[in-house]
Inverse folding.
């Protein structure tokens, strides 16, 4: 069973606020997922080629050519708050 | 542990290099610095739902070029990974980067450390997208976000902890930068942020096989700052170790005004990036032939050029070193050598007066009005005595200001020396007539008065007489007479 602290840690990384009942629910559902993964790990994959992508595609590129960007005003319309052409967010210090 | 001599400084450097492709790494937005905020963005680099990234082939090519120049292994199978973190400079909530399979690994560069060659390992170099730019406005209690930089192709180059002093770190950076400049893959301009550097430093007992607790230093805006910050941290670590204090593993910010580092205020939780393979991009396989082709068309790198300049042009180590310090200067020098065989003179003019003008004007040779043929012509004018060496420097300045040919400037400014012997003989005759007493004194042995006669003749010629010819004529006349 995933601990309360583990769920709260994941929530903090994802910037999600959880209610008490959600923490309990997620402890259970996330544990179910991990249990299933444990089951998958038991499969014999000795003869399966490792894959990092589900599509049978490789080497898809684009040429280094400039295409028009969106207009600044159009982009600013997507924001909740903006100032002088920039997105305005609560102050962050790192 | 009471002898500071037994302690050893261990440094590793992380360099971030913006690649100068036309467009961004995963979308067609222009990759350009200094534009209106958020004027170079699109659904892909803003991370809008439903948009898909596609890799810019040029960015990949540049990355491989860098790998080859760093003597690194090139990953035959390339994939991208998501590095997850929430910060407003990252619109998607993750950065597309490379985790376990960096495009380049196990490389090295050779630096000169205290005159001796030293190999600095390159642990890895990987391709990723740059983040946006935050401007903190403390007074308004907010941060402003500009996503123009988001998606700029970025190469992260991580050295092995092979560097043993701040000076070596400085030498590594200058050597690395010069190599990268020769590849023409980046502006390598720290002021514009196209080249950035973070440093890791720890101090340990020389006999120890494990590393000491390290400090990561950020906010290093010049190679000089890197060196100064490392010197400060090396001292701080040593003092703490010698007094028996523990070093905390932390990130510190360099303050250039105070010339000291301060701990970075950081979020409580440790960084946990939860890397996983990027599902929006398909993997790449690089064939040996494709890499070989890139290797074949690699530009000549500085170390090779230095060697060749010494051999081919019989230049001294010093002269060759100065010439290769800027790729554009090296190219200019070579273009001149195709026009004239006066190699040493060309070299002297470039590393002397031309370099002085470039420094004074703070520009590169490529933006000046100077063509190789004009410089070679100027050197000819000085060598034939048409103008004096001093006047030559003035003519050079005017050439740079106007882009005019040296002959045109000499004519317009009336700078030509009188090298016509008939004319000079006439001047000398006049001077001898006016100063017969002095001439007599010289003949009696007062040779120091010769200078006076030369001065008088030069005055008559309004300073434009060829001084060498003038002196010769005066000497001959005195001996002959
Ligand atoms: Zn874009």
């Amino acid at each position: 069973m995933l601990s309360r602290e583990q769920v709260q840690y994941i929530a903090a990384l994802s910037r999600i606020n959880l209610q008490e009942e959600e923490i309990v629910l997620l402890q259970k559902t996330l544990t179910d997922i991990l249990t299933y993964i444990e089951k998958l790990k038991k499969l014999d994959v000795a003869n399966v080629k490792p894959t990092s992508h589900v599509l049978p595609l490789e080497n898809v590129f684009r040429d280094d050519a400039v295409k028009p960007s969106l207009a600044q005003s159009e982009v600013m319309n997507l924001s909740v708050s903006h100032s002088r052409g920039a997105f305005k967010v609560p102050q962050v210090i790192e | 542990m009471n002898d500071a001599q037994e302690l050893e400084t261990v440094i590793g450097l992380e360099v971030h290099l913006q690649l100068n492709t036309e467009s961004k790494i995963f979308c067609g937005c222009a990759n350009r610095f200094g534009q209106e905020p958020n004027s170079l963005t699109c659904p892909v680099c803003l991370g809008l739902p439903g948009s898909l990234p596609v890799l810019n082939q040029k960015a990949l090519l540049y990355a491989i070029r860098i790998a080859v120049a760093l003597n690194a292994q090139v990953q035959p199978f390339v994939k991208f990974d998501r590095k997850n973190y929430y910060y407003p400079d990252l619109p998607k909530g993750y950065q597309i980067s490379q985790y376990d399979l960096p495009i380049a690994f196990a490389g090295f560069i050779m630096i000169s450390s205290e005159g001796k060659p030293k190999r600095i390992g390159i642990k890895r170099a990987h391709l990723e997208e740059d983040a946006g730019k935050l401007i903190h406005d403390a007074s308004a209690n907010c941060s402003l976000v500009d996503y123009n930089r988001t998606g700029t192709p970025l190469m992260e180059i991580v050295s092995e902890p092979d560097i043993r002093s701040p000076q070596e770190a400085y030498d590594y950076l200058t050597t690395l930068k010069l190599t990268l400049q020769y590849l023409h893959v980046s502006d390598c301009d720290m002021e514009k942020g196209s080249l950035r550097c973070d440093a890791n430093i720890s101090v340990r007992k020389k006999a120890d096989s494990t590393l000491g607790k390290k400090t990561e230093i950020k906010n290093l805006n010049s190679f000089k700052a890197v060196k100064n910050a490392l010197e400060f941290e090396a001292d701080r670590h040593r003092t703490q170790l010698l007094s028996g204090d523990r070093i905390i593993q932390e990130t510190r910010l360099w303050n250039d005004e105070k010339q000291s580092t301060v701990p970075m205020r950081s979020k409580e939780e440790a960084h946990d990036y939860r890397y996983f393979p990027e599902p929006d991009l398909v993997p790449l396989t690089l064939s040996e032939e494709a890499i070989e082709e890139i290797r074949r068309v690699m530009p000549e790198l500085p170390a090779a050029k230095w060697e060749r300049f010494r051999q081919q042009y019989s230049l001294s180590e010093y002269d060759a070193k100065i010439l290769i310090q800027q790729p554009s200067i090296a190219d200019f020098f070579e273009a001149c050598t195709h026009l004239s065989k006066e190699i040493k003179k060309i070299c002297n003019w470039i590393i002397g007066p031309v370099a002085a003008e470039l420094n004074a004007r703070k520009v590169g040779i490529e933006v000046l009005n100077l063509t190789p043929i004009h410089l070679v012509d100027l050197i000819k004018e000085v060598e034939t005595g048409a103008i004096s060496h001093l006047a030559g420097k003035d003519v050079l300045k005017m050439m740079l200001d106007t882009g005019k040919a040296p002959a045109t400037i000499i004519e317009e400014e009336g700078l030509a020396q009188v090298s016509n012997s008939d004319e000079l003989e006439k001047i000398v005759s006049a001077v001898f007539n006016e100063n017969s007493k002095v001439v007599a004194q010289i003949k009696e042995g007062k040779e120091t008065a010769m200078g006076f006669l030369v001065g008088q003749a030069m005055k008559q010629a309004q300073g434009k007489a060829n001084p060498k010819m003038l002196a010769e004529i005066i000497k001959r006349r005195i001996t002959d007479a």
